[in-house]
């Protein structure tokens, strides 16, 4: 049987949502022992896996200041695994930043410096896609409100304005701009 590259991602800890203020920190933040347990088990199977550790992450986006990330915990996880396994690599664990949408550039930079190799920005990407479509629809509202008739004439057709290929393209453009911004923020622009 031919071998193949199949990366895996393991989740540990809970991503914080509203209403969890009274929950014990041990269940909100991934503990170093959890990371070591996952690392020890998965490294027997393959070197290609990542761990999504909880360090205050949330899915979605919240008002700045409402979410307290602690990326420094990722550094503690790396040190713990290095110490317990005797690894010569100071960052033996490939970490994932779940719930990165709305995070600051400094939070990204810190997390990446502690071994994050993947950042999830789904909410930011969804919003970026919507922004292009929303802005197009607002700017062309007089051309997409009816099939015929617009500011250029009451008998002028509007199909070229409401054709989904036109307004979806606008969402794709703003989505691409957000991806480029993220690649720049993560210092991965123009890299393979």
**Cα gyration radius (Å):** 22 Å
Q: Numbering strands along the chain, what is their spatial order in the largest sheet?
A: 1-2
Shape: elongated
- Please summarize the sheet with the most strands: 2 strands, parallel
Derived from helix and strand composition plus strand pairing, the structural class reads alpha/beta
Number of helix segments?
A: 8
Helical amount? 40-55%
Ends apart, CA distance between termini: 29 Å
Give start-end ranges of low-pLDDT stretches.
1-6, 14-18
Strand share of the residues?
5-15%
Task: Give a brief rundown of this model.
This protein has about 190 residues and is α/β, with parallel strands linked by helices.
List the helices and strands and how they pair.
Elements: E1 8-12, H1 25-28, H2 32-43, E2 49-53, H3 72-85, E3 95-97, H4 105-113, E4 116-119, H5 122-139, H6 141-144, E5 148-150, E6 153-157, H7 159-162, H8 164-185
Parallel strand pairs: 1-2, 3-4
Antiparallel strand pairs: 5-6
Helix pairs in contact: 2-3, 5-8
Question: Keywords for this structure?
Answer:
8 helices; elongated; 6 strands; 45% helix; alpha/beta; disordered N terminus; 192 residues; two-stranded parallel sheet
């Amino acid at each position: 049987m031919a071998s193949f590259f199949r990366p895996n991602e393991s989740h540990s800890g809970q991503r914080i949502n509203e209403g969890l203020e009274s929950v014990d920190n041990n269940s909100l933040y991934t503990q170093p022992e959890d990371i070591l347990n996952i690392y020890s088990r998965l490294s027997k199977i393959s070197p290609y896996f990542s761990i999504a550790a909880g360090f205050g992450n949330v899915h979605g986006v919240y008002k700045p200041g409402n979410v307290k990330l602690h990326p420094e915990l990722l550094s503690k996880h790396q040190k713990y695994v290095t110490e317990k396994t005797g690894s010569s690599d100071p960052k033996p664990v490939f970490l994932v930043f779940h719930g990165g949408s709305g995070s600051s550039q400094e939070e990204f930079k810190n997390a990446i410096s502690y071994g994050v190799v993947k950042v999830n920005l789904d909410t930011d990407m969804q919003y970026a896609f919507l922004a292009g479509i929303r802005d197009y629809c607002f700017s062309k509202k007089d051309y997409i409100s009816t099939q015929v008739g617009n500011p250029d004439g009451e008998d002028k057709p509007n199909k070229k304005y409401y054709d989904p290929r036109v307004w979806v393209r606008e969402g794709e453009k703003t989505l691409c701009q957000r991806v480029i911004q993220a690649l720049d923020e993560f210092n991965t622009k123009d890299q393979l």
